[in-house]
Amino acid sequence: MEAVHFNFAAVLVAAALSFAIGGLWYSPLLFAKAWMKEAGLSEQQTRSAPMGRIFGLAALASLVMAFNLAAFIGPKASLGFGLFAGAAAGLGWVAMSLGVIYLFEQRSLKLWLINSGYQVLAYTLMGGLLGVWK
């Protein structure tokens, strides 16, 4: 088995990109109100949440996601392959995994679309960035 070599700068930027997309996706500009309603969260709950811990762990999770995607894509990928691989991972693995969980938890289709939509977009754009940045 060949050793995996990472472009650490690209992985860090991809993680930051995913984190930034999430910030916009779940902001009042896009899906904040619908997401809170479908997730059963009040504004008070979101305001009183331990945001430092949440953002820190979300940033760490984004970094793990970016490293994993970089390993999956490999160092010889192109923009096209990176976009495809990111979209395939986002839709085929993440969104479908969430779908199975949401079915058993009896969560709404709308919540699945919001959360899965973010994941598919984030993985697609991370994949494109990782595919093009040599």
Number of strands: 0
Kindly state the mean pLDDT as a whole number? 96
- Give the helix tally: 6
* Fraction in beta strands: under 5%
What's the number of domains? Answer: 1
Rg value: 16 Å
Helix content: over 70%
Low-confidence stretches: none
- SSE order, as H and E? HHHHHH
Q: Pairing-aware structural class of the strands and helices?
A: mainly alpha
Coarse shape: globular
Tell me the major beta sheet.
none
Spatial gap, N to C terminus: 22 Å
Description:
By secondary structure, this protein is mainly alpha-helical. The protein has one domain (8-132). It contains 6 helices and no strands. The chain has helices at residues 8-25, 32-39, 43-47, 51-73, 79-105, 109-132. α1 (8-25) packs antiparallel against α6. It is globular. The chain starts with 7 loop residues before the first helix and ends with a helix.
